[in-house]
Amino acid sequence: MSKFEKLNVDIRKEQGTSASRRARLQNKVPAVVYHSGVKAIPLSVDKLSLNKALRTGQMIFEVNVEDKDQFVLVKEIQYHPVTDEIIHVDFQKVKEDEKISLEVAVRSSGEAQGVKLGGLLVQMLNSVTIKCRPAEIPEFLEIDVTDMEMNTNLFVKDITLPEDVEMLTADDIAVVSVQEPKAEKEDEVIEESESEEADETSEDETSSEDDAKEESTEEEGKDNSGEEA
Fold it and tell me: Is-above-0.85 flag for pTM?
């Protein structure tokens, strides 16, 4: 990432619910920027500028606070529960030469061999946590699924990492899997169930035949005993 999108921000002199509401009526989004050991600074961000910046997919932006250009990382975005509009943003101040940890999206690349045979590619992990400098933050990370066979998994350790990017998420967490279609699995379960029922029926029939033979033998023994008498 060689260039950061600029955000138009102002320092909020008024705070509280009423002040935030007035800011939103002026197409401003209440925000705050903080850094370890430094008191948080309340801001208001131009709504159009913010939406445009977020559409770039970047999470690091350049702002001017107290006449100083600085870089901030989007740590949290709060949305309105009904309209889904952004109602508040938390920024964290970062330095260009300071490594930071953040979440980035994971995307699969290629077509799995198991999918070509009718399997389904299921993504179980959509993002991971990495650590790197702001200028090295990737838009997303890739995991190559080309060699995946049916009923196989790929893990965090299989994700391709750019140079100088450190993975913080545990290596043994599954990211994607190729699974058999659900219908085929159901058919297999039905076939196994029918097979078990057939075996049980066969055992019952054999047991019945054995019982019938025993009863027949006992009756013949009684008849023979009568004749001898």
Answer: no
